[in-house]
Here is the input.
Amino acid sequence: MTKPPLTLYLAAPRGFCAGVDRAIKIVELALQKWGAPVYVRHEIVHNKFVVDDLRAKGAVFVEELDDCPDDRPVIFSAHGVPKAVPAEAARREMLFVDATCPLVSKVHIEAERHHENGLQIVMIGHAGHPETIGTMGQLPEGEVLLVETVADVALLDVRDPERLAFVTQTTLSVDDTADIVAALQARFPAIKGPHKEDICYATTNRQEAVKAMAPRADAMLVVGAPNSSNSKRLVEVGARAGCAYSQLVQRATDIDWRALDGIRSIGITAGASAPEILVDEVIDALKARYDVTIETIETAKENVEFKVPRVMREPAGA
Ligand code: 2E7
Ligand code: F3S
Here is the structure.
């Protein structure tokens, strides 16, 4: 039987960012340096495949520091942690390594600097997400107010409208965030903030690539986990940019083939925490059913790399 033709658009950039590469490397180096078990507080990045792979190598994933023994190393996930977490680890004299993405640490420092200058902070982010919890947790209770939507801006009860600053989560929708920033600036003209927002280069580039790809594709698959904020945003961006069907899949077995019935083109991208091997798996599944022609849609080149912390670069026993 002949296979139907399918044009497969591959978004570039897609998949791992520099912060994810670094975080995974930190866990691998920790296992080499200190042996198993090495504890990791929260999924190092939001991907089951990555987590399962590290677990097989001896990493133990826990949600709280309370679930770690005093005498084994613990790594904090790429999303960042409230100040109280390293403080507690230090009090318990634990060996800890912080795998927080440097671009998140930059936001933490920004928030602290505003606080030192006497400003109250508005954070644009998703409630309950570990990055939001970590950034808000850099300052005492009440010093950071959270807004998730434009509507939330009208409900803000601030201490002094003249002494305000905003920070953002790094993985938000660029377009939604612009609207929220505009609403903040309209209500609080004196509000200070970054040039645009704190959305990172990887989030921005992946959303841009999807915007270029989505209008051409009959359907779009985003490889990523259901708890991966940046991956979920790519699904939304795809739908909003004109793709009739946009689905998040963890791997090939998640593909809803019935929903793809009759398509002649498909766009593929991957969130910042999704390994390329899972993209390959999805492509192979499509090749098994269609006569596939691949076309890359590249809207940016990335060459960002982050160094691992000094302790991981030192020889064992140092
Ligand atoms: C850390 C940060 O692990 P992810 O899926 O995380 P999100 O925040 O998108 O749920 O992706 C990598 C990553 C992104 N941002 C890690 Cl702060
Ligand atoms: Fe960092 Fe952005 Fe990746 S904040 S972990 S570079 S998605």
User: Anything to note?
Assistant: The chain is about 35% helix and 20% strand. The two ends are 63 Å apart (CA to CA). Residues 17-20, 78, 101, 103-104, 170-171, 200, 202-203, 230, 272 surround FE3-S4 cluster (ligand 2) (CB under 6 Å).
